[in-house]
Amino acid sequence: MQMKPFNLIIFLVITGAILFFVPHAYASENSCIDCHRTVSPFQDIQKQFNQVRIQHLEKNVTCSLECHEDRLRQLATANYQQWSNSLHALKGVTCEICHEGDPKQAVKEKAHLGIKKPTDLESPVYYTNVPKTCGNCHSKELANFANSKHYQRLEALKLAPTCTTCHAPHTFMVLNPEEFRNFCGNCHSVYKKVAPYDVPVQAEYLLGKVNKLKFNIEITRQDIFWAKKNGTDVAAAERYADDALSIMQNLPPMWHEFNLTHFEDEIDSAGKELKKAQDIIKPAVTPTRTPAPRTPGFIFLSGIVSLLAAVYLIRRK
Ligand code: HEC
Ligand code: HEC
Ligand code: HEC
Ligand code: HEC
Ligand code: HEC
Fold first, then answer.
1. Which residues contact 141 (CB under 8 A, 6 or more apart)?
2. Can you tell me the mean pLDDT for 218-224?
């Protein structure tokens, strides 16, 4: 009897300890994350800067710390920081998945075994290999991208955007439509001579149109909800709205074939499905008043009056 509270305390202490240590144990499972989170930029920057300076001196180029400090600092820590704010961090897409290496090793040299420089043709992050690396998970995007002129160009001439040109490593963000004009214009402009030149404007317009579509789908769903409450049979409208939704969900992967005409056709076909849904539910939701019947005789009456007037005038002559 007297042991009971003591047992309880032991129990609490043990669970507390487990709860306290487990997240840490989990966090230390990946040495890439652990080390890159805490890498001290300065020592490494100095070290790497010296290497760069030696290389420069060998080639007779003078330089100062300012030239390379930003670049080297970025190499040491910013990749981790950018990654840690990304959806990839949230979903556990850790460094070694793209870079290889061994996250079970705590010593840098061992952990880095197998990691190649991004400039190495064999590296999974060499830019022409990037689509395949990302495509391991983003298979729909890759399948569409593989059909694009961008991809053909990338394979043939190496002068075209790869996945990470548009989704910067390591933030892996998706640009806003407003950001596209400048971004696509890096290549598609009369100055850079990559046709078609209207791509930046087109891209901004079409992605804006996608956002409008998203909004309209939302509105239609709300309207369907209220129509249902008012007793309307919304089954068919729901089907049309679902069709529109599934077309809309396929738009981001499909975008990657960079066939803007096809892309616009798909947006429009989703729009048509929504219109069909709206046609079914709209009258029930906002019961527009049936227009009053047109006063039957106004034109007829004025016709008679002018006829009589004419007859009267002729008579007077
Ligand atoms: C003990 C610390 C430590 C561990 C563990 C570690 N790194 Fe690094 N890593 C560094 C440092 C410091 C640099 C900066 C360059 C250098 O000193 O080699 C670096 C550089 C890199 C680079 C750039 C290499 C280059 O040549 O451009 C990549 C990529 C990289 N690490 C990925 C990883 C991955 C993936 C893992 C896990 C499998 C990992 N690192 C584990 C400390 C570490
Ligand atoms: C989803 C894939 C992916 C993940 C996850 C990823 N990287 Fe990278 N990383 C890349 C790509 C692609 C490049 C090549 C960038 C380029 O060409 O500029 C790269 C380049 C680098 C470089 C070289 C940077 C440079 O400018 O030379 C370092 C260092 C690096 N990554 C570290 C990391 C670390 C540390 C992590 C984990 C915290 C990580 N990466 C997670 C794809 C990834
Ligand atoms: C191990 C699987 C995996 C790999 C490899 C991978 N990703 Fe992802 N990526 C994900 C997951 C999971 C998400 C979260 C969204 C989801 O569930 O689809 C995501 C999300 C994204 C997003 C959307 C981010 C947002 O904020 O909406 C982009 C863009 C992206 N990844 C680009 C890339 C690129 C570029 C590469 C290659 C350098 C890559 N991914 C490699 C699994 C992966
Ligand atoms: C020329 C620029 C460009 C290239 C190259 C590119 N993307 Fe995208 N990506 C975009 C844009 C723009 C969007 C947003 C599309 C939309 O909202 O309809 C996007 C969206 C995405 C998304 C988010 C999809 C979602 O469901 O929201 C992922 C994941 C993605 N891209 C992965 C990739 C991968 C993997 C590659 C390479 C195989 C790649 N991207 C190549 C511009 C690009
Ligand atoms: C790094 C340079 C580069 C960037 C950035 C770039 N493109 Fe391209 N794009 C090309 C090249 C190269 C071609 C092929 C031109 C040709 O073969 O005539 C091309 C072709 C195209 C085509 C024509 C495809 C066809 O079937 O005719 C479209 C559409 C396109 N790009 C859209 C975009 C969009 C949208 C963006 C911005 C999200 C973008 N591009 C960003 C280089 C780029």
1. 134, 135, 163, 252, 253, 256
2. 96
